[in-house]
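Dear colleagues,

As part of the handover before I leave the project, I'm documenting each prediction I ran so the next person doesn't have to rerun anything. This entry is a single chain, and its sequence is reproduced below.
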Amino acid sequence: MTPQRHVVYVAGSGRSGTSTLAGVLREFGLHVPAPEVEADASNPRGFSEPRWVVDHHDTLLRAADVQTSDPRPLAWHLVDRASAEANALGQIRVWLGTQLAAHGDLVVKDPRLLWFLELWLDAAADAGARASCLTMLRPPAEVAGSKAAYYQGRGVVDRVAGWINLMLGTELATRSTPRAFIRYADLLRDWDEPVFRAAAALDLPGVDPADVAAVRRVDAFVDPSLHRVGATWADVPVPAPLRTLADDLWAALDALADHDDAGTRAELDRLRALYPYVHRKVAASPARRIARLVPSEVVPQTVRRGVAHLLWRSPDATR
């Protein structure tokens, strides 16, 4: 009898350590489908992302007119509609079934995966595979600061709001399947404890502390120096309502790494209901509109800190 295959979906906002976690799982024998996205300066040890997955998600997001870290609550509906019109589930089902048949247990990772998790979970079930989700957690100021350091485009307000929108959606989508959460700092500081704890909880194939050769490979692969951006709110000035919501969301997500209980889920439901109101207030603020005229990357950090109390703490921006 053929053993049931397992597919692990690595979720989490970009710049939160998803590449490192997917690479760890590969060292223990889970397959990352080729060809992969090539490494670059922002991720020198590789992304561990299948090129087909990235391209497929990019096509769907363009059709929906949605950005990878889109802060709009409406974006979830736009993605769902574009996915249905493109028969995204059918395409994912074919690709995933082919990979499982050819390679066995898989790890699938892409920062865009957040928007399409339900489709991937359905495709795994259709293929008769066992699915689980591992979500990486990193504080929002660090995520926004890391994205600002390596990516052009959006300002810090959009980056923080995008983190809130995506992490709220991810948490809800993963409730329907076995899941675990790993803090980025824990992974880099002492990877074996959080990884083996999650592997035991999810019964991940092959992730075994007795596999001495794999443990040595992971020891060589995980590089604590990759924690290159340690931004705080002093470096990421955002409107007070957005910062408060981000702090509350981080506290709830951080708790999930230790206990995924009804109380924590209820708090996340509260924050999910609150977010559209906060987003609307922040997006409509005159101070917010003014700030959008000047890309944050062209404003020296010392200047941004100096005007933060004027631009982001004005009565209009914080009411």
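The mean pLDDT is 87. The radius of gyration is 20 Å.

All the best with the project,
I.
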